[in-house]
Amino acid sequence: MLPKDDSCAAVEDRAEGDPQHPLILERVEKKTEKKWHTVVLDRVKKHCSCTPEKVKSKILGFVPILKWLPRYKLRDWILGDLMSGIIIGILLVPQSIAYSLLASQDPIYGIYTSFFASVIYAILGSSRHISVGIFGVLCLLVGQVVDRELALAGYLPESSIGINNSDTLLAGQGNGSNVECDRSCYAITVGATVTFTAGIYQVLMGLLQVGFVSVYLSDSLLSGFATGASLTILTSQIKFLLGLKIPRPQGWFTMFKTWYGLFTNLATTNICDLITSLVCLAVLIPAKELNDLFKSKLKAPIPFELFVVVIATLASHFGHFSSEYGSGVAGDIPTGFLPPQLPAWKLIPNVAMDAFSIAIVGFAITVSLSEMFAKKHGYTVDANQEMYAIGFCNILPSFFRCFTTSAALTKTLVKESTGCQTQMSGLITAVILLLVLLVIAPLFYSLQKCVLAVIIVVNLRGALGKFRDIPQMWRVNRIDASIWLITMATSALVNTELGLLVGVLASAFFVLGRTQQAQVMELGHTATREHYENVSSYRGLQTHSGVAVFRYEAPIYYANQSLFKKSLYKCADLNPVKQKALRLKFKKNKKQQEETGKIPKVKSEDDLSKENEVEASASITMMLDEKSSINIRSLVIDCSGILFLDTAGINALKEVRKDYRELGVEVVLAQCNTSVLDSLERGGYYDSKKDGEVGKNNMTFFTIADAVNYAQSINVPNGDYDNKS
């Protein structure tokens, strides 16, 4: 129990005469709030002080490999890391080449991207298990930006380039650039610039310690976004499966534009590509299902994708699919590394907004996966360090013609299931990719693009399989299912980046909507103990005579304070505002009667309809007032479900207390948390001088039973309202 001055001694004095002895707790003294300049100085000293121990801790925290590598258990961990690293490396070779197609880049850049990401995350990442590299959704986002900038720069779409001069492209005249750079060169320049900008965003968010933003991206939101993007990816790959040469549409509603282009160009389908696609699909889909079916018995998944790539490349090479049938192939894939180059600074303003959404998606996916596997294996990860790690996985590789990366669920699951213990497996994966870059890459010259598209489509099974879970999601939680559907539909049908924003807004709307839908509930207690629950939810609950107990399970703030009052008045079946209005009308009518000396008799409904509205209302009011009585003498509000109050919420409670007191009904608060108590104190709720109220009644209690006992013990005069009858 707390009085207005928060003094425990005062409570004890008031409680001495109470035989029920209410629960008394003494608040811990609050620390004196420091001035703002003192707080700033303390933080500067904390973060800018330099000691050997602090320097060592910062270095080890920023470069986690320095912490775990000296403690590496070679005998226990090397076998699992070696196997998982080799398997992931083998899987990444065909996938890196395939996802380069999705990002509108040449195959070699996908291998570059996977190589650098594996090395950098192994050094800076705090998760032991996630696999960082190419991720389909990010490749789609990067590819959309690349195609847009290519069109703005004046480069012809790939479908408009002649067969005999496929390497001769227009110079970038649309943006005023005089630099000699063909289409492929400009495409990776745009991709690297987007990647650099996204990495800068991610590192800045790490410096600002905003890793907490990941909690605002719910699982249903991310899942819906990934599924919607997967539908877009699937649509974008159909043209490669059919061997159609049509440009990727830009702007909103790209899915509809793509399907329109597919149907209008269906007659130009390349039969060779179509047959190859169907054969590869017929092989890979059952093979993937077998891998999933026997994953508990297999020490490592069988790399069917690599087998398909090797066989398809040999068939295309010896069958002369490119020259004889016009089938699109990967083309020349150089070995080694190209010299580093700076991003195109002039392009950054054009891609800044796109890079921000890419940065958010990449960070959210990486943090959610790292936290999921860390929880599963009993260790912790630092969200801000993950921000740094994924940021540098984008910044540094962007100088070597790479595009955006993040963690990928499928490869992470494979990595974990094959015995991964540390990020040593990532370094082993990098060795496999380095071998491909230096020796094997040129052998994929004849690999058909339709085969790469098949690999992309087959790897969408997991995300597209979420459609089967919609009925279950709807049964479990309709709000989460609605967020999933809204995000998925917007990402797929309208715009991929817009889908993420709409998902965040929808989540916020539903959170606010829950506070708008909260209703005041009347509580009753059990017969054997003083435990209170909703009388409409449980049978056998009893209520107190003259004391009504209510609960509101939502914060009271500016957006719902009027709904709180409306719900309380309705549940209590006593609206003080309406009663006050009736009272004023009654007094006015009574005064008129005294002045005229006439007392109107009660009229029938037909007669009332013919009389003056004011006189009829006054007459009816007098009748109701004479016959009615207020059964509630005290009203207890259980505040255990009220998380916080703002100024509007405090004023709402003041108004409720004042309005009911004018009717002779006392309002008592119970089970307020410390945040609510502090808000009430700061808001002047306990200041009796403001409203002319009796100070001893301005208190709150720690239990509902104490509040009810107190309400039953006080004798509140009924005042003018009762005396009027």
TrEMBL record:
Xref: CDD domains: STAS_SulP_like_sulfate_transporter
UniProt entry tagged with the keyword Membrane: yes
Short name of one Pfam family: STAS
Main location: membrane
Membrane-protein topology: Multi-pass membrane protein
NCBIfam families associated with the record: sulP
Domain of life: Eukaryota
Protein species of origin: Characodon lateralis
Compartment(s): Membrane
Protein name: STAS domain-containing protein
Keywords: Membrane, Transmembrane, Transmembrane helix
Regions crossing the membrane: 77-102, 129-146, 186-208, 220-242, 262-286, 347-367, 388-407, 427-460, 481-512
InterPro entries, per database record: SLC26A/SulP_dom, SLC26A/SulP_fam, STAS_dom, STAS_dom_sf
Residues covered by the STAS domain: 537-711
